[in-house]
Design a protein that fits this description.
- The protein has 9 helices and 16 strands.
- The protein is α/β, with parallel strands linked by helices.
- Helix 1 packs across helix 8 and helix 8 runs antiparallel to helix 9.
- The N and C termini lie far apart (about 40 Å).
Amino acid sequence: MIVTLTPNPSLDRAYELPSLDRGAVLRATRDRVDPGGKGVNVSRAVAAAGHRTVAVVPLGGPEGALLARLLGEHGIEAAGVPVAGSTRVNITLVEPDSTLTKVNAAGPELSGAEAEALLEAVRSRATGADWIACCGSLPRGLGPEWYAQLVARAHRAGLRVALDTSGGALGATLAEEPDVVKPNAEELAEAVGRPLATVGEVVKAAGELRERGARAVLASLGADGQLLVDATGTWFGHAEPVAVRSNVGAGDASLAGFLAAGGSGPAALAAAVAHGTAAVQLPGSVMPTPAHLAPDAVTVTDAVPTDRLLTEPVR
């Protein structure tokens, strides 16, 4: 069972448009609403794979009530923490060529009591959990050290924590030794403060995060594959090229696959690559089921191509 925490969840509304014309009245040809936020997406992928998951989320206003209902419809047990502010609504505008324009709201500001209630909700629901996945940016009212408090409490309870965040929140949490952190190449470059242009430079940067406390680093490199750097060594996984329909939530699907497969070693890396590859072939933020996976198309090796240039180097 995997518990996810999304401190700043959302309702994700997507509108498909014949064209995006500034200043005009636009009529959507299709629209949909999904439960959103990185941890929520992880729970959606875990549930789609047939595993039990509990999503801890702050819920406020009618938007929060709708989010809780949508989670239930996806087979996810929602552990909602009532907050005074309304759950945010994010907007995605989709053009015919699949170009996405996103407008993300800031979300509510949490009080000290609400922040503590979130920590308590994780503690009470994590008994017997295989993993706690803490995902996404922190809302207003929570300082960058907030995730560090959660990791410290989880470790005292003997629980494993996966962390998928960036910026100051990532840096402030490394000293508490999260069991795995999952940056993409851009977030990894930000964490080490320099550009990354090759796979070898990513490996070195991941090693630096381990020196700062992370027990393992699962780095997503987009079309170039994924890296796992842990105490056993460095592993590189990639899949055969596929047609990308949408990359929304693909990294979250990868983390779900990694954790559901045990959260360590080359087999879990292979599962992460398979889930991420399946996700990019699906529309919007639809999460893959086992029927979408193509594990035979994934290769994992300890022969890391350190000289390979990244398709999209981070400058």
